[in-house]
């Protein structure tokens, strides 16, 4: 954990641009050594999206009004579509989705539990921050996938995540209650720590230990995007 | 409530055929007087599907294994697609979905709470029985909608509900534990009572009180389909 904490100081150097452009303008990191094998990659990305879907379903159930419920149902539908798209890729390769996902379920279940939050606003911030971070992370890793599956997965995961609902409701709540803002800023900082850990644990060990410094720029980008999300809500990252 | 209980004796007279065929072969009931106005119809059908989706999401979260999780996620996706299709119909008519659904939320929330069950098997049986019953019910009422919206809604709601997952898991669990079978048979009987009440309350009062006997054949059909679902699981209705 310490290594990521130390590196957080660098995150502000990244230019304030939309995530996609930042990724393109950064010196290309050869990600291939860090991308897991295809089926394990698809399995963990698919299981992560299923967890996002479950979080969004929980947010729907606990939403304070029908408009929020309705907006969140669209976001849940998109997470489910991402999950199902990844499951289709697993089947296309003759994999059994439940088997392929099984190795990642306990780690990702624990992550979901740690980041579910104590109330609706914390949950919403988790969906926005952890969801945004790990979508970007899996898109980034997809560069190292063989054949044409990488671009296809990147397209699937890069689809409009319907994040307006998070931003709208969080900004309104923070605007109405500055104490909530401080509270959520703390929560956001905790989330990025847990999210970095789960992202790091998704990488094959041998790649990481062999050349730790090569993966660093990828995390710098991802943290910069996280900081922009926090800033957009008026929260100090 | 008594009126429905009394009528349950008639349910066995209906031929054992798939629901759709039964509906076509029954003497046509003029449903028009019983169908609510278009927007209230769409609002309650949409909110019901959202509740089904929430129940399925809960079933996913509490599923005992990844295969069940994965199968249920497909069923949840279908419920969400039905909800979104109905919401699209509301918008097409200039309605604001949250407003149109608002009048039905407390009744349907209470219904969902009553029928959620105490464990995964009870919840699965609710999704299967209450979901099947009310899908059929709203399809039946759609005959009375104006213009081309009726057939469109019937098509949307009649799409494969992905009920295999319910039947497979419930049959396996009941086969392994006869006591669970007796328990779920009781639960199924309670469910049909609550479901009939919520269906009845979805009908405009004036239509019902004016000519109660005219709606009876519709409920007879719906209960026959319910009994077939129970029988298919080896449960006595």
Automatic annotation (TrEMBL), chains A, B:
InterPro entries: Ferritin-like, Ferritin_actino. It comes from the Bacteria. Residues 41-198 form the Ferritin-like domain. Pfam families: MiaE_2. This is Ferritin-like domain-containing protein. It comes from Cryobacterium cheniae.
